[in-house]
Every structure is written in C-alpha cells, then in structure tokens.
Amino acid sequence: MTFKFEISKKSKKSKARVGKLHTPHGIVNTPVFLPVGTQGSVKTMSPRDLNEIGAEMILGNTYHLLLRPGPDLIKEAGGLHKFISWDKPILTDSGGFQVFSLAHLRKLTDEGVKFTSHIDGTKHFLTPASVLETQAAFGSDIMMPLDECVAYPCDKKEAKKALERTTVWAKESNKEHGAQNAEHRALFGIVQGGTYKDLRKQSAEEIAGIDFPGYAIGGLSVGEPQNEMFEMLAIVTNILPDDKPRHLMGVGFPSDITGAVKLGADIFDCVIPTRLARHGTFISDEGKISIRQARFEKDFSPIDPTCDCYTCQNFSRAYLRHIFWAREILALHLLTIHNLRYYMRLMQRLREEILAE
Amino acid sequence: MTFKFEISKKSKKSKARVGKLHTPHGIVNTPVFLPVGTQGSVKTMSPRDLNEIGAEMILGNTYHLLLRPGPDLIKEAGGLHKFISWDKPILTDSGGFQVFSLAHLRKLTDEGVKFTSHIDGTKHFLTPASVLETQAAFGSDIMMPLDECVAYPCDKKEAKKALERTTVWAKESNKEHGAQNAEHRALFGIVQGGTYKDLRKQSAEEIAGIDFPGYAIGGLSVGEPQNEMFEMLAIVTNILPDDKPRHLMGVGFPSDITGAVKLGADIFDCVIPTRLARHGTFISDEGKISIRQARFEKDFSPIDPTCDCYTCQNFSRAYLRHIFWAREILALHLLTIHNLRYYMRLMQRLREEILAE
Questions:
Q1: Strand order in A104-109's β-sheet?
Q2: Which residues pair with A186 in a beta bridge?
C-alpha cells in the first residue's frame, strides 16, 4: 500500500483534525501516540501486549538499531517487522538526535556526522544517504532524514546554522529517496529552528517547500517551557501544508499532547509512559503518582479506577507497591501496560472529541 | 472443596502414577510442576501468562511473604490468591528452608527458630504454630509444617537431631492444624534425614506414622549427586503410604524430575526454569543452552522448534540474543515463558507415558 494521509474531520474550534495514515503495514488513526521501541522492543512489552493496549504504530530508534544488531542482520531477518514480530506500522527516526545526545566524539561536517558508539567504541558516519539506506534495510513505514537537532537553550547563530544544514540535508534526502523508488515508505521532512520564532518560520518554509508526504517537528520538548513549545508549534503548523500529517517528535506529557493536537499535530512518540513505569510511577487524570508511597500500602483499589487495562482490572495498588519494592520485574511490566493504555485512551478521547464537535 | 488425592493410573514398570489433587481452588493433574512465585509473583510472569503456559498450581515462599508484605496485609487483601490475582491452587512452604539459607543470626531451639530478616533486620520467631497461622492468613491450598533442613554434606549426628526435631514439630503441627478445623487446607508432613539411608528410613517411618493428607520430601537437591538423591527418594517412597501425594521439594532439572516420577514423586517445584531464563539460558531436549552465544547471532530459527509456546512461535534465536544483550526486560520474560512451558510439556509427557502403558 502506498503511503497516504486522509483527513476525516477538522475541528471547528482549533487546528485539530482526525485522520488516517495509510501505510504498507496497515491503517493508523490519528492523532496517534507511538510507544517507543528503542532497541527493537517496547520496554517490558511483547507485541501481543502492545496489540492489547491498542498500539497502532511504534517507533524504532535508528541510532540504537544501527549499532546493535545492525541493519545487515535486520535485513537478513526479513526486516524489522519480522525480526521483532510486529506486523503493524513502524516509524524510525534518523538517529541524528541520539548521535547528539548519546554518542561520544561526534564530529559534524556538511557531509554528515562522524561518531563513536556508546556501546563498543566503534566508529560510524551518518550521512543523509546512509540513514535512508539503514531505514530501508529495516523496512520502516515512515522514515526520517538526517537532521541537526540543537540543545536547549541554544545560541541563535548555532540554531540558524543547524536549521540551514537540516534544509540542505532534507533536499538531498528527498532526492535520494525518490531515486530509490520506495514511495511505499514515506520520508518525512523535519523542521528545526530551536526556540526562535523567526528561525522556526524560516525552517518551516524551507522544509514545506520540499514535497514530502508528511512533516516532523524536531528539537522541541528538549527542556523549554510548555508555552514556548506551543508557540513554536503554532508557527510551524501555520506554515506546513494542511493536508499532510505532522509528527511532533519526542512529545510528551498528556497535557503537551492535548495542547499540541489543538495546534494541528497528528503523530506523537515519547518514552515518558514506559520510563515512568519503570521508575514506579503511574499516570492517570490526576497526574504522575509514585506507587512506592506508604499511603498505598493497604490500598486495595486499582491504580486507576477509570481504566480498562489488564493491570487495573486485576491488581491493587497494594500489590503493585509490594512487587515494586520487592524488585519484581512484573511490577515494571504491569505499570507499563497501564501507562501505555492511558496514552492510548487519551488519543482515543482526543479523536472522539473532535469527531463529536 | 476438601483436599483429596485420586490416583487414576499406576505404572506397571515403575512406581510412577498419574492422579488428581482436589483442592479448594480446583483440580491439579499429577505429576505436576509448580512454578515458584517467591514474593507473590512468578518472576516476569503475570497470572495470565501462567495460565497460558499451562501452570496448574504455583508455590509461594512463606519466609519471603512473611517478611514482606506480611500475613496481616495479605489477609486484609482477601488472601494470597486474591492479592496476587491467581485463582488456581497455591502451595506454600513453611519458611524453614529459607530461614536456614537466607536469614541472619538464626537461633534454633526446640520451640522454633529465631532469626533476623535479610531485608530490614527485624527479628522474627517461627514456631510450628506460627507458620500454620501465617499460611492460614495466606489461604494456601497446601501448607507445610515447620521442619529443620540440614545442609549438604551434614554430619550424621546433626542430621539425626534435625529429623527428630522435624518429627516432634510435625506432630505438634498436625495437632494444631486439626484444632483449626481447616481440613480444606491440606497440611503435609515433611521427611528429612539428609543423605543417610537409615535416617531417611527413620524419618519416613516417623512422619508416615502421623496421618497427613500428603507428604513432602525435604532436604534433597541441596548439592548431593543425582544418584544419591534417587537412592534417598526410593527409600522414602517405599515407606510413605501409596495413596497419598508426595512432594519432592525444590527439585529440579528435567532429568531429576523424570527419574523422581518413576520413584513415585507427584509434586515438584523449582526455581531452575525461571532463574536460568533470567541468566539467558533456555532449556530444551538438548539441555541448557545460553542464548548469548555468538553462533546464534544470525540464527533465525526458534529456540526450540518442537515447542508451542508464544516465544517459540514468534521469535528467533537471533532476536532473543539481541534483546538479551541489549538488556531488554522482554528477553527475560520471553525466555521464562519458554522454560516454564518446557517444564509443563515435560510433565504432560510424563503423565501421558504412564497413561499410555
């Protein structure tokens, strides 16, 4: 199936919309949240667990999978879907973000980025062409081009240089992707620009000027206040074509997602629900709550009485607290199920609210 | 339902038998293997995972559950079954074995054993009456009386003293249990005697002389060679009443179980399948094999092509090796599913072999 984005309904109150992404591995309802399967596994979750909580698409990290087990092995396994036993869509990032945050001794040039693996010290060179080749070996449904993501806060000159390099690479990537005859795999363009309004505008215009089937907004949710993120997002979604899907990369908390949907973002991914679970924190409409607290010692109610997940249907706060303190792996799994299911229900509610207008 | 053991078929070739244990939480087919849920969780496995691999009964460790979360909390939760969300039978040990292997500063007297918790240094005193009270708070289907388990090797004088104390405590426990009017919960007698033939005979005769609905054989699989274990077991099963179930505690590897079934043992429990899984080792008819090996790097076949478990049906050795090295929790879970399923299929095969004679 060729990639296609179909908008079913636009909100009258905001820039929110409900739609469907058509991908080679099936249809995805947007706005959508992607659980993050960094190394070929959404932490503690088997594919059937992901199906059960209602995941429609997951994200894989090119940086991690490139270093281990490597694109050759994944290709030999029949692609990432087959290797990890997940038959629904997969979006992969370009690896750029992780190179800037995890790798050692990285060296950036106009050609790409050289770095040393954080795992075994091997040397690698990411280029616009190489990251597409890697993601083609994975067989990703949605791919990202190499971009340069700056830290927060970032000096304006540096942010400008990064966005301009991102534009150059985006053009190269689009050309390269076109030459591969791989239209079934969608390549998105990535907008950068730090937290500078004029730079976000410049980047959005430059990237929107390249014909991509979808667009990603990078470099947000990296430490800036929420209102600043929303401000940047609003500038960008005003410029990006309305009929293409928009992925707000690495975002976020439920309130970030709720606000960003209203500003026209369609796709989200974030490690927050899985990471918090592994630290003993569950998410509900009340916010983030640690199961470790003494007040839950004899609390025999579910962690979230409004939730339909396996964890909430079968286990009490007292039990989850006990197995968390007893360092049982099951605690991390059961909390992950709940947190991801909470995110899936959040997305469903956001879609339903728009449809009900 | 009152506890009952029903033998459906006796082997003509050995002392093996196929039977059914009737318990308050349902019927269990014997010979049976109990996954170990030390702290109220079979490591990495949810109750539905246990149901799926075919677990019919699990074991809980009184020592661990006594220290954390404690019998009062479990009782307030509605019992151990409800607390951990497992509605099939649970067998609990007495805690004695762990006191001897894990606790600090233990002091043994004829009244019981004083010890200091390995978790928080709190002081506890286990007596024949207290361990029954604790297991009654759990609501265990099969309970064990306090016994004294000696190390291997053990000086004969010490082994004799331990078995005699075990007999005294068994009598006290049986009397105490009778006074509790808790016939629906079965209390088993435990045979000790180290690796001394005459002591095993003495213990089996003394314990068989007390009317228990089932018997356990303790103090084996603690380091002695397999042939020595089988020798001790044969002596004991020749003496224990033939119409009562026999639990060979803490055993073992598949070959231990296969041999012990032929010598008349009906119930087994062991941490081997779950512990090996967490160390990256899977079990098959070929033995114990580490998934970490380089030869599995590009091996896209299942870990055990003869196995019907979720892991073998969906994942390759290459994938399991990758996620194990990547330190993904999912690796531990998927290997545990396979190893436990292997044990369940082993027990099924042993039952079928006897039935087919």
A1: A104-109, A112-116, A123-126
A2: A142
Mutate which: A81, A322, A334, vs B, most B CBs within 10 A: A322
Cβ–Cβ below 8 Å for A83 and B297: no
Query: What residues pair up with A189 in beta bridges, in sequence order?
Result: A215
> Are B48 and A84 in contact (CB < 8 Å)?
no
Give the nearest partner residue to B322 out of A40, A76, A331, using CB atoms.
A40
Which one-letter DSSP state was computed for residue B149? P
Given this model, what pLDDT does residue B102 score? Answer: 79
Which of the four pLDDT bands, split at 50, 70 and 90, describes residue A106?
A: confident
Quote the pTM value: 0.98
**Class (C level, CATH) for A61-270:** alpha beta
Q: Any chain A CB within 8 A of the CB of B330? A: yes
- pLDDT(A20) > 80: yes
Whether A338 contacts chain B with CB within 8 A: no
CATH architecture of B4-30+61-270: Alpha-Beta Barrel (3.20)
Residues of chain A in contact with residue B326, where contact means CB-CB under 8 angstroms, are 39-41, 64, 68
pLDDT band at B1 (very low <50, low <70, confident <90, very high): low
Q: Are residues A328 and B46, on separate chains, in Cβ contact within 8 Å?
A: no
> Maximum distance among all alpha carbons in chain B?
63
B40 and A326: CB-CB below 8 Å? yes
Report the pLDDT value the prediction gives residue B179, as an integer from 0 to 100. Answer: 87
B87 at A interface, C-beta within 8 A: no
Q: What is the pLDDT of residue A1?
A: 66
Coil, helix or strand at residue A306? coil
Residues of B in contact with A47 (CB under 8 A): 314
Helical pair A197-208 and A226-239, crossing angle rounded to 10 deg: 30
Residue spans of the domains in chain B: they are 4-30+61-270, 271-357
Interatomic CA distance for residues A182 and A10, integer angstroms: 30
Cross-chain Cβ contact B319/A83 below 8 Å: yes
DSSP category for residue B295: G
* Residues of A with catalytic roles: 93, 269
Give the model confidence (pLDDT) of A227-284 as tens digits. Answer: 999 999 999 999 999 999 999 999 999 999 999 999 999 999 999 999 999 999 999 9
Which residues from chain B sit within 8 angstroms of residue A76, using beta carbons?
298, 300
Is the Cβ–Cβ distance between B63 and B95 less than 8 Å?
yes
